[in-house]
Design goal:
Elements: H1 14-19, H2 26-45, E1 58-59, H3 63-66, E2 81-84, E3 94-100, E4 106-111, E5 125-126, E6 131-138, E7 153-159, E8 167-168, E9 171-172, H4 192-197, E10 203-209, E11 231-236, E12 244-249, E13 253-258, E14 261-267, E15 274-282, E16 287-292, E17 306-309, H5 315-318, E18 325-333, E19 341-347, E20 353-362, E21 367-369, E22 374-375, E23 380-391, E24 400-404, E25 409-410, E26 418-423, E27 429-433, E28 441-445, E29 456-465, E30 472-474, E31 478-482, E32 488-491, E33 495-497, E34 503-507, E35 511-514, E36 520-528, E37 540-546, E38 549-550, E39 554-555, E40 564-569, E41 577-587, E42 596-602, E43 606-610, E44 614-616, E45 626-628, E46 630-632, E47 636-640, E48 648-654, E49 659-660, E50 663-664, E51 667-672, E52 678-681, E53 687-693, E54 700-703, E55 713-718, E56 732-738
Parallel strand pairs: 22-33, 35-42
Antiparallel strand pairs: 1-4, 2-3, 3-19, 4-18, 5-18, 6-15, 6-19, 7-10, 7-18, 8-9, 10-11, 11-14, 12-13, 15-16, 16-17, 20-21, 20-23, 23-29, 24-28, 24-31, 25-29, 26-27, 26-29, 30-33, 31-32, 34-36, 36-40, 37-38, 37-39, 37-41, 41-42, 43-47, 44-46, 45-55, 47-54, 48-53, 48-56, 49-50, 51-52, 51-55
Signal peptide: 1-23
Keywords: Signal
Organism: Companilactobacillus nantensis DSM 16982
Length: 739
């Protein structure tokens, strides 16, 4: 892919000048030179995908103009250069940054710090923001072709300043100093502060040391790694006097060892492989976290990464930091032994600081699936890759997503042929077509740039966990995000699909009829299809929807027989007429039965309410006909909760009269309708009182007596004198469902 490879320096003839200082035979020297070039080019030709080097963002200091010399008094040049696979910085496919390749070399490359407004050259670390640097490091093959040792390694450095390399006067910090630690070339140096003063000031460094220096010879610069075994990684503050320990004495001279922090020893740094390094700054905790070997060249996750989080850094560690910007870079050295030290940058936070993550959500269980979690066969899963822009000078543009989807998931297209969607905060969406999926791999170039106003791209695939006859491990898969200014690799969580145990629900009946105030009782049997697995009632949940509305989830009753379903739908939730119930069960492992449908018919009813506290007024003896008014609470109501239909109802009343003992009242109860028509209630013959028609859903209440007044309703008519006394009787009210 096309990268920003526009660095065009450097130092032709670096190998020749470095080789002149040796007193070995010409043929051996030539062989060593060719061997060093071969090892360098082997690393360059295998460099991973990277951003190249933009010389507007970096500087390669000129050591010669500064007058730096090595311990032999030989002028030292900066050997850092962007090289192609043939070991040339002139044209071709520029692959990586060569820091050193032969003996007695020093290389240094530093980010530009430009705080001017709108600067396109600033490549600093902003300590007020989250910052992430990622890169690849190469330290040479496992062994030199001609045998011999390796030395010395590289260092990643943060500094508050612009010192190009550690030095003591013009004496450069080569060999064990790695270009950043103090210089211990004078055996008369009696103060650790003097050693610290020759280091890069106001700095912090991670060293990748391929040659342990453990000789205590005073002034030989060969004792920094005393007590450390083999190749190692460590970090610390080069310019602090407490970093160095003095040994020896005034007569014999002094040698200095180093107090390393976070030591990782006995490593294999020069093994012919590129090693990935991620360095992150947390502006909240003021800590740096670095991970070494966190991924492999093929994009897969590193199996045994080294991850270190430092103690919180303080203002004293770097001094006063102008504009909250730190310079960062790499230094590398060789001494008596040669080594190809190579770097390939993958992300620069000054350009784009961003993240990419992969997550899985179980839509069936409503939960996130973390690494090592389990899902159930046939669960609906959402696999989401999220790209997030944090900060930077540039848009995150030309994003190319090469996504690998987890196996053992069925990605079935919807009616439009889609298996997912890409969503941006701008409101734009992109459909993910099933036809673009190739053996669980999906490649797509995003149509939107990400920036401070359009921060995320959320790429979601929808799938169903496979039905498995045994628990199945689904491995994490790695995906690659490429662009002009940021490269990311992301891993899905590994998870387990549980063995499928088909569970069934067999209902005793799929049709029920209940009365208007009667609960619907659904009964049945739950069992496993294998006929062997026992049902544990407390592990089985019952899910139901009544007329499309979810009911409360309950468990099978532990006191019932194993697998017995007794599910009650309260009468108050039933509609008049036909109701549809959807019901299924699920065990604690997510095994789910098919949905059963039950038709529940709620028969409607007519009810009559009559308040019996009623009567008629008193009467004096008269010999002519007289109409006596009602007295008391004549409350007569009809409640109709049947379905809306053409059926009506009719209310009649009948009586055989009023009596005082065996003496009949001389008169009759009469009903006068709204038109004034009067009908006598005699001989238990029914008289029509009211009628109605169901016109609304639910309970329809008619208050029959409410419409009666002083001239309508039921009265008592006296025809002539009756013996004095209290006359009583009964009225039979009859409510009929009519057609």
């Amino acid at each position: 892919m096309k990268k920003q490879n526009i660095f065009k320096l450097l130092f032709v003839g670096a190998f020749i000048s470095a080789a002149i200082i040796f007193s070995q035979p010409v043929s051996t020297q030539a062989e060593s030179t060719l061997q060093a070039i071969g090892e360098q080019n082997a690393g360059l030709s295998s460099a991973p995908d990277n951003l190249g080097l933009n010389n507007d963002l970096f500087e390669v200091p000129d050591f010669k103009s500064a007058g730096y010399v090595d311990s032999n008094g030989t002028s030292v040049g900066n050997t850092a250069a962007l090289m192609n696979s043939l070991g040339s910085s002139a044209g071709g496919n520029l692959r990586a940054i060569r820091m050193t390749s032969f003996q007695h070399q020093v290389g240094a490359i530093w980010s530009n710090v430009d705080t001017s407004a709108g600067s396109l050259k600033d490549n600093s670390i902003d300590i007020q923001k989250k910052q992430t640097l990622s890169m690849w490091l190469y330290f040479g093959p496992s062994e030199h072709t001609g045998g011999g040792e390796f030395g010395d390694g590289m260092a990643f450095v943060l500094q508050n300043g612009d010192v190009p390399v550690s030095h003591q006067g013009t004496l450069i910090g080569d060999g064990e100093s790695l270009g950043v630690w103090g210089v211990d070339r004078n055996k008369k140096t009696s103060s650790a502060q003097t050693i610290a003063n020759s280091a890069i000031p106001n700095s912090w460094a991670i060293e990748f040391d391929t040659h342990p220096n453990t000789s205590s010879t005073p002034g030989a610069a060969d004792y920094f790694d005393n007590g450390i075994s083999g190749q190692h990684i460590a970090d610390g503050y080069p310019a602090l006097a407490t970093t160095y320990n003095r040994s020896g004495g005034l007569l014999s001279g002094y040698a200095y060892s180093q107090n390393h922090t976070d030591v990782q020893s006995n490593l294999s740094l020069h093994d012919g492989a590129w090693h990935h390094l991620t360095v992150s700054w947390n502006p909240i905790t003021k800590e740096i976290t670095y991970s070494f070997n966190d991924k492999n060249v093929d994009g897969s996750k590193g199996t045994n990464p080294i991850t270190v989080t430092t103690s919180p850094m303080t203002s004293d560690d770097f001094g006063t930091i102008p504009d909250d910007k730190l310079r960062w870079g790499f230094t590398a050295t060789t001494g008596d032994y040669f080594q190809a030290n190579l770097i390939a940058f993958e992300s620069l936070p000054a350009l784009v600081e961003g993240d990419a993550t992969a997550t899985i959500y179980d839509n069936t269980e409503k939960k996130d699936v973390a690494d090592g979690d389990a899902v159930n066969s046939n669960d609906n899963l959402a696999i989401t890759y999220k790209l997030n822009y944090d900060s930077g000078r540039n848009d995150w543009s030309n994003i190319k997503a090469s996504l690998n989807l987890p196996k053992n998931i069925t990605y079935a297209p919807d009616a439009n042929g889609n298996i997912g969607q890409i969503v941006y905060p701008s409101g734009k969406t992109e459909d993910i077509k099933y036809s673009d999926l190739n053996n669980n791999a999906y490649y797509h170039e995003l149509t939107e740039n990400l920036n401070s106003t359009n921060k995320t791209a959320t790429i979601t695939f929808n799938g169903v966990a496979s039905t498995t006859s045994s628990s199945t491990n689904v491995a994490s898969v790695r995906s690659h995000i490429d662009s002009d200014s940021l490269i990311k690799d992301i891993d899905t969580p590994a998870f387990v699909i549980k063995k499928s145990k088909p569970i069934t629900l067999t209902l005793d009946s799929n049709n029920l009829s209940v009365g208007s105030n009667e609960d619907a009782k659904i009964t049945g049997k739950v069992s496993y299809a294998d006929g062997v697995t026992p049902v544990v009632n407390s592990d089985v949940s019952v899910y139901a929807k009544l007329n499309g509305t979810a009911l409360d989830t309950v468990k099978l009753n532990s006191s019932d027989t194993a697998g017995q379903l007794n599910f009650v739908v309260p009468s108050g939730k039933l509609l008049e007429g036909t109701n549809n119930l959807e019901i299924y069960v699920q065990d604690k492992d997510g095994n789910t039965s098919s949905v059963s449908n039950v038709t529940i018919t709620r028969s409607g009813s007519l009810t009559l309410t009559v308040n019996k506290d009623y009567g008629f007024g008193s009467i004096n003896q008269v010999d002519e006909s007289q109409l006596l008014p009602r007295k008391g609470n004549w409350d007569i109501t009809v409640n109709d909760n049947r379905e809306i239909s053409k059926s009506s109802w009719n209310l009649t009343a009948s009586t055989n009269g009023l009596y005082n003992g065996t003496t009949a009242f001389n008169g009759n109860l009469v009903y006068i309708n709204g038109n004034g028509d009067e009908t006598a209630l005699i001989n238990n013959e029914p008289v029509d009182i009211a009628s109605g028609l169901k016109t609304a859903t639910g309970d329809q209440v008619t208050d029959v007596s409410k419409v009666w007044n002083s001239t309508s309703g039921i009265f008592l008519r006296s025809n002539a004198e009756s013996p004095a006394g209290k006359y009583q009787g009964e009225i039979d009210w009859t409510l009929s469902d009519t057609i």
